[in-house]
Amino acid sequence: MPSNNSVATEASLEKLISAIDALDAVVSEWGEHERLIVKTLRKAIDDLNKEAFARLIKTVKQNPEAMSALKEAMADEVVYSVFRHHGLIKPSLNERIEMALETIRPMLAGHGGNVELVSIDLPSTVVVRLIGACSGCPASELTLSEGVEKAIKEFCPEITEVTKAKGICSSVEGTAVNFISPFAKNQTKNWIYVANFDELPENDFIVREVDGQSILLAKTENNVVCYRNACAHLGMPLDSSMVTNGVLKCSYHAFEYLLKSGECLTVPEVQLQTHMVKVTDNRVEVCLS
Ligand code: FES
Asked: How far does residue 236's CA lie from ligand 1's centre (Å)?
C-alpha cells in the first residue's frame, strides 16, 4: 500500500496542473466577490511559498554540496516548474527559443506551416526546421529571416545566427524536435575529477580541459563554481580575463560577469553556462551540462 508521500511523488506535473485547472474552472463560475477572495488567498500562499523557497536557496548557496544537490533537484520537472512559477530561476535558452517560436506560429499556421527547433549550437547558433507548407515555400528564406530569426533574436540576444536544418523535412506532427532543458540533462550523473580543492585560487579561476571541453573553475566566498570557457558575447575563451573584486572581465570586448554566479553585468539577459560541481574532501568533480 503506497504511502501518501509516495503517491504525491509519483503524481505527474500534468496531473497536478490538471487538478489546479479543474478547481480554476469551478471558481471561474463563482461571483466576482468570491473569485477575488480566492485570487487574494492564492497570491498570499504564493508569496509565502516564494519567500520560503528564496530563503531556502539563500541558505543552500552557502554550501557547495547542497547547491549541487539543489541543481540536481532542478532536473525534476515539478521542482523546476514551481521555481519557475515563482520567478526564482530564469527561463532556460530552450524555453526562450520556444517562447519566440510561439509568437510566430499563429502566422505560420495561417499558411499551413510551422517551425521546430532542431538544435542549439552554443554559444550563438540555433538550427530550426520549417515544416508543413513553409518547408517548400519559395519565400521560406524570408520567413526564416524576417519571422523566425527576428523573433529568436528578440527573446535570446545571445543568439547571433539562425540557420535552417539540412535534410528531409518532418511533418507537422513529426517528433524530430528534442527539447531538453539544461536542468533535465544528465539524469545519469557522470562526475569527472578536475582538480584538488586546495589548488583553486581564492576569487580567481583556473582553466581545465574535460572531455574535450574547456572549463573555468573558480572559488569564491567558499563556494566552487564551474563554467564553460566561453564568453556569452561571442563565445571567445575567457582564459585571459581579469578578475577584480569578484567581477570577471572578458579580454575581448569587456563583457563583465559575477565570478560567483556567472551572471552577466553587461547584458543581464545572458550568463555564463554553468556545469554542476561538487567537492568531496579535497576532490573537485564536475558534471558537464
Ligand atoms: S567575446 Fe566579446 S566580450 Fe567576450
From this structure: 6
Taking only the tens place, the pLDDT of each residue in 139-155 is 566 667 778 888 999 99
C-beta of 248 in contact with ligand 1 (< 6 A): no
Residues 43, 61: one domain?
yes
| Residue-range definition of the domain harbouring residue 145 | 93-164
Q: Are residues 55 and 132 in the same domain?
A: no
Q: Which three cell numbers stand for residue 208?
A: 581545465
Q: Which atom of ligand 1 lies at the shortest distance from residue 236's CA?
A: 1
- Identify the CATH number of the domain in which residue 158 sits: 3.30.300.130
Distance 230 CA to ligand 1 centre (A): 9
Encode pLDDT of 232-279 as tens digits.
888 899 999 999 999 999 999 899 998 988 888 888 777 888 887 877
Torsion angle of the four alpha carbons 148, 149, 154, 156, in this order, in degrees rounded to the nearest 10: 100
Q: Give the count of domains, the chain.
A: 3
